[in-house]
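Our preliminary data section would be incomplete without showing what the modeling component actually yields. Below, a chain of 299 amino acids is followed by its predicted structure, encoded as tokens that our downstream tools consume directly.
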Amino acid sequence: MTQKLIEDLLSFLVSAVIQGSIYSLLALGFSLVYGVGGILNQAHGAFYVIATYIMYVFINGLAGVGFTLGLIFSLGITTIIGGLIYLVLIKPLKESHVSVVIVTFAFAFFIEYLVGILVDRIPHKIEDYFIYFGASERFFTVFGVDIQYQEILIFIVATLLVILITLFIKKSKLGKSIRAVAQDSEAAELMGINVDKILAYTLMISAFLAAIAAIINGPLGTVTPYAGWPILINSFAIVVLGGLGSLPGSVLGAYILAFASRFTQSFINPIFGALIPIVVIVIMLIIRPRGIFGKKEID
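Predicted structure:
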């Protein structure tokens, strides 16, 4: 292999793994909400936008303490909003799936225009977090490819969270209640489980995961009011691919989609890479609507 080919392949692998790590967090939350309550939350991308803008405002406005406060407020506010969305918007309409889709879609549009009014609609950058840790270098080089510390952080945080969320769902008392509601909400209610509370907690977990993805990915992307729509489309494509409601399927689907998108962008045409999520949705809905793992309940 030539040096250029080695660099291209390594760059592709690194970018695909990092993108897959972000996708896994986003898809995990989206799939969890559907698996537990059958809710197709169209406001999922809005969680990402909210968390990103809170982080951006704090870091730009409060030098020195902006990172810490931004982290706390971004996670806290986004998670609380997740619970409020269920209680205020979804709970009154949960008997009608179409109404839930419409109202959460409307909320996503509301957030897009709200942050556009309160801030602006111009793309912004979030400063690399490692400047807050006094790092003189922000990347290291392997075979001619620069790998940012931020990318390593993304992979570590995403991997740990996927493991922790899986253990939480399987082992904790709340996790067992979530699994019970996912398998049979009526039976769970008869056993004394407050289904509405569990669904609110599930939306909060989903919002928390989206906020984490937004925070760790912030310095590598741009801050825009409309960033939530690609997030929503990619999340939906992943869970359709892996299986709606399947947590392992969501993680697997995240990396499959990331590698497919990055390969297309790197070696074929960047424009075609943006079409991969749409192609995945159409093909899977035609040939296997249940996805690879094909389970509705939480595994």
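The beta strands are 139-142, 145-148. The chain has twelve helices and two strands. Preliminary results of this kind motivate Aim 1 of the renewal.
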